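Chapter summary example.
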Amino acid sequence: MKKSKILFGIGCLLVLLAILFLIFAFNHPEMSFPWNNNVTLTIYGIYAVFTTAMFVLSAVLKKR
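The structure predicted for these 64 residues follows.
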C-alpha cells in the first residue's frame, strides 16, 4: 500500500475521531478537563496541525 494512501487514511481517521469527540462533548457539557483552558486549546491546536499535516503529506507524496 502506498504511503500517500496510508497518510490519507490516518487523516480521515483523525477527522472522524474529532467529530466523535465533538458529539460526545456537546452531549456531556458537565464533563471538563482538569486543567487550564490554555492547555486544552494548545492540545486542540496541535491535533489540528497534525491532522492537516497528514492530508498535506498525502497530497505531496501522491504527486511523486
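To summarize the output: DSSP finds two helices and no strands in the chain.
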